[in-house]
Amino acid sequence: MKDFDHLMSVWQGQPKPDQLSVDDVLKQVKKGIRSITTKLYWSIVAMVAITAFAFIVTFFLAFKSAITTVGILIVLVTLLMYLSLIVRHYHILSKHDATLNPAEYLDSLKEYQKTRTKVIGWFYYIYILLISAGLALYFIEVLENSSLTFKLVTYGSILLWFVFTTFYLKPRMFKNEEEKLNLMIDRLVRLKEQFD
């Protein structure tokens, strides 16, 4: 019995978990979301510029081969698909205000994270594959009069780019964003539990 009393006193003597400040948590979450939306905004600006360039190349330059035009169209359609995806993500993140209803905001953030992880997972591979295929088709005509060595270097570079972005860049890029989202969600969950 004495051991039980000692165990109870030790257990009750444990420090209480820190109480989170509502203002601090909401400021940190807003700052984190602003960081992600700013990155998405500049990605949108860059994608609009690249898409406009691809559009100009597709419809205002004359190519001898239909394969070249198909390659550029594949790139253009892929860029438009990616642009629509990041615009959608930007609107999802920027339309809610964490200060109005934190519980609803937490639910929308969890839903965004779940759908983003699912969509980005398969879409990224399709995106990189289509861009690489489109560039490969485009370079058939562009490199028509080039040496075999230059063609091999160009196609090898496309292959290396595909492997690099798929297996090195993607995991690091998405892991960083995932950690930011997890941190914000964790803070909001702890804040919610504090008031439950």
UniProtKB/TrEMBL annotation:
Keyword annotations of the record: Membrane, Transmembrane, Transmembrane helix
Bilayer-crossing regions: 40-61, 67-87, 119-140, 152-169
Keyword Transmembrane helix: yes
Top-rank taxon: Bacteria
Protein name: Uncharacterized protein
